[in-house]
Structure formats: structure tokens, C-alpha cells
Amino acid sequence: MLKCDHCSLQVPDKTAVTDEINGEKKIFCCNGCRGVFRFISSEGLSDFYDRRESSWTPGPPDERPIEFSAFSDSLRPEGDEMEIGVVIDGIRCASCIWLIEKLMLRTDGVHYARVNYATHKALIRWDPKATDVKNVLTRIRSIGYTPKPALPGLREEEMKAQQRDLLVRFGTAAFFSMQLMLYSVALYAGYFQGIGEKTRLIFQLIAFALATPILFYSGAPFIRGSIRGIEQLSFNMDVLIVTGAGSAYFYSIYQIFAGGEVYFDTAAMIITLILLGRYIETGAKGRSSDVITRLLSLNPKEAIVVRDQGGIDSCRESAVRSTETVPISSIQVGDLVQIRPGERIPLDGVVTEGMSEVDESMLTGESKPVAKGPGSEMFCGTQNLYGSLIFHVKRTGKDTVLSQIIMTVENAQARRAPVQALTDRMIGYFVPAVLLLSLITCIIWLMYGREVERAFMNAVSVLVIACPCALGLATPLAVLIGTTRGASKGILIKGGDIIERARKIDTVVLDKTGTITQGKPRLLLYTGIGVHDDEALALAFSLERFSEHSIAKAIISAPLETAPYPVSDFTAHPGLGVSGIINGKPALLGSRAFIESAVSSELVERSIGTQIRSQEISGSTVICLLYDGSLAGVFIISDKVRHEAKESVEAMKKAGYDVMMITGDGHDTAFAVAEEIGLDKDKVMARKSPVEKAKAIKLMQTEGRVVMMVGDGINDAPALVQADVGMAMGRATDIALASADMVLMRSTLSLVPEAVRLSRKTYQVIRQNLFWAFIYNIIAIPLAVMGLLHPIFAAIAMTLSSLSVVGNSVRLKSG
Amino acid sequence: MWSVFLLIFLALCLGLAAWLIFLWAVKSGQYDDMEGPKYRMLDDDETKKNKTK
What we know:
The complex is a heterodimer of chains A (about 800) and B (about 55). Chain A has about 800 residues and is of the alpha+beta class. Chain A has 28 helices and 31 strands. Helix content of chain A is about 50%, strand content about 20%. Chain A has a 7-stranded mixed beta sheet with strand order 19-31-30-29-20-27-28, with helices on both faces. In chain A, strands 11-10-12-18-13-16 form a 6-stranded antiparallel beta sheet, with no helix packed on it. At the A-B interface, helix 3, helix 5 and helix 6 of A face helix 1 of B.
């Protein structure tokens, strides 16, 4: 087999297209790829082939004309130039982006081209006199990438604007606070060493000028939030910030006139540090929603529906059909939809006609295309590569696997992090307590017969010292360092709320295939019965080429000496096996149960023999081939248990977790694996479909358990979402990233107990941080009550609490 | 004493300048793509590449 020099696809010698480019002989799978290669070389960009990391490159370009009208909304004039924002489909790695940017910049008239690495959104600017949108988009397409109009995506724009706003507010607060600290330190020094009245006044006035924009510009969102809070009579974080910073600010203004000490630095620091905490939080949130926006923009908006006209076409003896292009939203379950090569699959369904290969990498992470034939399941958002397919729509709109996952992620993002709830709960008690204390202070001073002004000022100073500066950093900093620590170990944790939930876990459910086992079944042994061994393999190979089941992968990865047979009438029987017609004779390949439904079990029993039965019990899967009515071959496929599985299960049991195993496989296989890793039979749940897995987890949750589910991919997606914490293992794909709460970047089971340990530790640090944030301020409150508060004490409390919080969080780094 | 006030004035000007540069950076989108630059810096300059060839 030869390899295409452009798209790296294997090509049979006979059909290969050869060409001489720049004096070198190159091999291509088709003329389309040759065209792209020629084009890239003629642009002087052949470096692309050396720099790409994966061998995957988009195949030949789409032949259909681009619908330029769809892009009219994305176009806008920018001075003398035109600008367009498009999402580019087909980008796999940094070198794809390099290629597109370089190609665009080499286009006459294009002055600016940038592709965002995270969102795959390209921004291209050109001179309308030199070129036009058609030329620009056609050039992108001629190297095999597909430009699509960027969705107006209100939420994305909104989020971007929000993030920018936050950054400007935080940056402003930070710059002014830095300046402010210079004068505050000078004032502290003045307190110890003495300072001239006039100098002190000037410094205080400068401090006032610097603190004002921080409070009223940077702090504006908190002021709005606290007004809302007070209207609803709830003492939220904003109320605490505004009372703390506001009282410090106005108290200081009074002190300038009264000739006392000022607290502008306290007011500024509270706001700056809280904004920093918020900025850290939104950064983490933004990244995962970028991925979602991209997935949504790539989905087709229209599809071709095939309709039976009722009559029978006399020539082809099939129903007369008409095709019609309709918007996705009008397609219903049961409709037949046609997919052309290169298109993305718009809805979930089952193939009824046609054979093709589909790139499912965005769902499964498998970079090799999956062969599809009648009976194979299709998932919305995956990309059809070579052949034309017709499929029966099974799920539409919000029910597709992709939408389900996207919805879960969006809900998760909207949900308030429970760790934050812990802070809010504390503040709910703290704010009224402080207000009460301040009132009591005022009353006590009045009772002792002091003047009203003195009593009032002492009451305000209680408010000044009570608000902890480091409060806003306590949670985000611990979460940031905890998740960074996790990432360096290969554990991706999606947010603070997951840390909170992971802490409570008492049950760990492990999926068998791909989690406990390696997920790569291998063909251990095969024998032909009545035919030669190799002949049996050739028959099985031919059938399994069109199935995406893991068993099929094991068979087609076996070395085959001869060419596979052509197969007609291929049908996949989910959970059982496959069937088809080879050389005019019916062939069935599948589990014993499947074969026994066609011939007597006695015959199977006689042919298989004892050696194979013992294999079946020891955890391997036995597949039988029935050809022309008689048993022709037996294949033994086994998926090895990960070598660290037993150790990790033991570690989890020791740590007090109830470890269970769940699988779609039969009981015999499940028990054998369970025994190998040291699990009792009653901890095994076998023969569960993806939906039943989710139900089983729900049942455990109603029993009061807090469940973590560990799985490896799309088959577990419902269970991952149902579990309190879903952990995806191994292949960190867009979908895994989206549906799971935690993702293990390396396929090692030992990371599972590690991840839980890290969450527990991070949560502990958050609680300690909250303690350290409050404690110094609480200690200083009696001073304020007694009327002895001084800026130095406020500064000491501020510094110590911030240092304790930062120092305590950094401890996580070594954990 | 005047030198102190002059220095204070200069310090405020420097701070203000830094703030304005920061505002410009945010407005012109310097913070929009935090992922790309680490790859872009590895891209060789074309002219250099041609020379070595």
C-alpha cells in the first residue's frame, strides 16, 4: 500500500495518482489531493508538510460552489478595507493555522490574517480594490479547509465584552492601587518618624485622588450589586465589599478635614484583590465555552431530505424519490437524510444506504476515520469523508448526543459554584453581625457620655476593619493552584464546584472497557473450521470492515495476507454481530447467542470444543463465523486489564471508597475481569446499555450515595453526566472535555484516587483560606470598638491575611 | 522639598502612562488570543528561511 503525500491516506498501487512536483515524484490518492499539493507548493508553502504534527490533513477540497450570500452578514467595512470573520472547519493543529495565515497573506490585497488558536475563527482584512471576498474564501477552500460564516453568537460576544470590561476595571484598579501604596507607605513612615502637617495633607489628598476612580469606576459593579442585594434584603458579598470599602473611603475623607489618619489603601486593596479573584475565575470559564461555540458554528444549518414519492421506479425497482434541501429545524425523527462527501452529519441516526468513512474524532478522539455502512450509528457533528450516505434520523434538535452534551456544559457553567456558596453563607452571617457590632459600639460610646461625632466615627471604623481584603482571593486562588497542580499531573478539573463535589464522593463506579481494561481488544487466536485459518480471517475481515464496534477493530487490525472480499447487503445488529453476503453466500459474524439464533446450539457446541469454552470463562470474547449455513471459524478476542488496575482499585478501597464496576458486556466476562482486579461479584453490574448505566447511577444516588463515574468516551456520556462527578479517561477530546467534570490526560487508573485526593486537599485549603482571610480582621475588630484603630493595624491585617491566603494556597503546588 | 514634589509628579505621570498603554492594549485586542503567540514565535521568518536554503 502506498501513502498519499497530501492526506496520508493509504492508497492501493493501482489507483494511485503520481505526479512530479519540484523534481520529486509524489503519490496521491486522488486528483483533488494532487491539486492541493500543487497549489501549496506553488505558493511556496510546502514547509507545511514538514511541520505538521499529525499526519492528518483535510482531504481534497469540496467541489461544490461556495454560497457567498451566507457570508454577507460576516462582512463589514473597516476604513478603506473590508473585513470578514469566518470559522474555519478542518483545522487540526498549529500548522494548519500557519498554512492558512501564510496563504492569506500571500493573496494580493490581503493585509491582515489571523486565526484564533482556540476558536478557529479567522479575521481577514483586505483591500477591496485588489481582491474580493470570493477570491479570499475560494483560496481557503482550495487547500481543503472549509470557511463557514461565524455565528452571530450573542453569548460569545457578550462574554467577550464582559471579560474585557472586567480586565479594564481590574487593570485600572491595579495601576491606581500601586501608585496609592507609594503614598500610603510614606504616610505609615510618617506615623513612626514624624511628618510635616503640610506634607501629610498633600499625600493624603493624592491618595484621595487615586482612590476615587478605584472605588467609583472599578468598584461600580459591586455598588450596583449591593444595591440589588439590599433591595432583596440579602447580605451578599457585594454588600460586604461596598460597606467595607465605602466606609473606609468616606471615613478617610472626614479624617482629612479632621487631621486624622486615612484608610484609602484599605478601600483600594479590597476592590483590587476581589477583582483579581473574579478575573482568575472567568478566565477558566471562558476556555471551555470557546470550544462549544466552535462546535455549534461548524454544525450544518441545512440538510438534504430524501422523500419517497409513493410509486415504484420500474427501471431500478425501487421507490421513486425526491430530494429537497430544508433547514435542520424542520427535519423530524424518521426522515431520511442524505449526506454528501465532506459534509458534517447534521443529526443523530442510523445509516440505511451507502458506505463511507466518517471522522468522529471530535466525539471519540479516534483520529482514524470509522467505516460506516447500513446499521451503523451516526452522530451529529461528525464529518462524512468519502462516500455518500443516506440515514434514518433517530434524534433531532435538543436530543442529539452533541446537543445534550453542550446543554450539560452550558448548564454547568451557569450554575453557581457551591464553593462560592460556602463563602456566601459565611458572609450572610458575617455582614449583619458586623453591622450590629458597629451599632453596639456607637451606643456604648454614647452611653459613656462621649460626643456623638466620636461615637459615630468609632462605629464606622469597625466597618472599615471588618472587611477582609483577601476574601476575594481565598477561593479562586486555591482553585487555580489546585487545578494547575492537577493539570501538571494529567488531571483536568473543570471548576471549583467539582472540587466541592468530589470531596463528598463515597462510591466510585468504573466502566470496564477502556477504563479497567486497555480498551484495545486484540485478536488472540483464530481457527477455521472446515476452511483454512486465513480464509476464515479474510471472511471475518471483509465483514467487520464496515462495523465500528471495538471487536471489529480487533479483527481488522489483524494482519491479512489476501485482499478482502466485496460484501453486499451489510447489516449491523447492535449488540449481536454483523451479517452480509460474500460471494453470493450469506455470512454471519457475532457472539455465540447471535450464531445460535441461526443454527442449532448443538452444532456450535460440537464445533467449538472445550479449549475455547475455558477462554470464554476467563474473560475473553468468543466470536463465531457462520458462512453458507455452517460454522466456518472461531475468533477469540481479549482486552487486557490495565496492569495498574488492581493496585489502584485496592488504593481506592483502602481510602474508604466503595468501588464498583459497570459494563455492557455479559456476566462471565465481567466476573472474570472483576476477579482479576480484586472486586467481589456483588460489585459488578453487567449487561448495561449506556442509558441503563446512567439509570444505575441514578438509583445509587437515590440511596444517598455520592457517585463518581469513570469512563472513556461517548458510550458513557449519559452516565458521566448523571454521576456527581464524571471522569473521562484517556482521550481528551472536545466531547470528553465537555461532558465530564474531570478529564485524565493519561490513561492510567492510578490517577483516579490521585484526583480525588487532590480535590479533597484543595477544598481543605479553600476552607483554611477563608479562615485566614477573616481571622486578622476579626482580631482587629476589638481595637476599632475601643476606638484605638489605626491605619497601621488595618495595613497589617490586610498584608497578613493576603500573605496567609497566598502562602496557604501555594502549599497545594507541592501536594 | 520641590524635588520631592517634582518626583511625585513624575511618578504619577509614569503611572498614568502605564495605565494608558494598558487601556490601549486591551482595546486593540492584545489580550484576546492568549493561546496563539506561543506557536507563532516558532514560525520562522520567511526571508531568513530562504537565505539558508
